[in-house]
Design a protein that fits this description.
globular, mainly beta, 16-stranded antiparallel barrel, 394 residues
Amino acid sequence: MNILKIRWPLAFAVLGIVLFFSNTVLAYPDFISYGYTTCIVCHTNSLGGGPLTAYGKALFAQEIAARPFIPSSISDEELGEYSGLLPGVVLNHWLQPSIKYRGLSLTRSPGGSKEKSVWINMQTDVSIVSSTSNTNRTLLAITYNILPEPVDYYNNGEKVSGVSKEHYIRTFVTKSLLVQVGLMDKAYGIRTPDHTAYNRGLIGMGKDDQAHGIILHYMGSSWDAAFNYFVGNLSQNENFRQKGFSAIAESDWGEKHRIGASVADFKTSLESTQLLAVHDRYGLPNAKGSSLWIEAGLKRKISETSNEEKFGNYAIGQLMINLTRGYNFVTTFERSQEINSLNEPDRKKWGVGFLTFPFQRLEARVNITQESSTSPFLATEDLWALQGQIHASF
């Protein structure tokens, strides 16, 4: 039986089970073992991603980033005071700007006859957050992305050199209920910063899949849940706008251990998509900074023109081991299949490398990946890649 044909009674039953046993809130996947369990502590977006709050920047400086060449006479708390855009300057709550750059050195087939290297400017963002108070009860967040070169980003025949990646108003209606309205990432699954991950671009949750809509996020004392209704990016060609809904919930099953579930149902004029996933985030015991997270899901896609149906699956897991403050070993395994069948291609990717924060405001990654696609009738050549990434945030 096609499980997703049962559709949302089953999906919401899964969410209901999560909420019934729930005991906590959403968490950023890599840093769960630091004990920070609420995304809203560090991010303006209550589900994670986007600009950091002033408190989030301070926590990063005080606990996560290494502190080379800094004398012991300077405390971590003092480092936190210099974590803003202008070190040592406390900006007013009504104007909190930030700048972010991410670049990637990519070498395909390293050491082979087909070796090819390229530098990719992945992200150049300028963000402004304006809040009505220091508590950030109500705020406006805007992130503008400068593109590496003009492209037809919105598929309307016009090239642009920059786009709005997000713009939304967020407010606490009550102490527990938060509402966000505007252009945002959809509420679904684990928000890994790797936009090539199988739980992002392959299922319609990629780096360019933001949608205008509304998010209702309830944060009770024992559970968290968010519902997202969206109508697509209104600047985009209408044929490509993703319209529908999504929902996510998570629960605590022990100290620094959270399980959750997500559902989504949306379509464009070309294709409809239905998703159902479970996810688990775990902070390794007696190992501050080390974590394991997993997301596994089912995906159903139907062509709106040919009515062709594809019912597949995907999974991703990541283990991060903290070696010392600011330096981590990371390994990731991913799997995706467009059609659930032993006779259909099975796509896999494995990666190993290091995630480091050598200085305040700076992230550096290096990793090697192997990607393959196999089936009983066909096996493609493995694709190897060496990646080095720099991420600067101010």
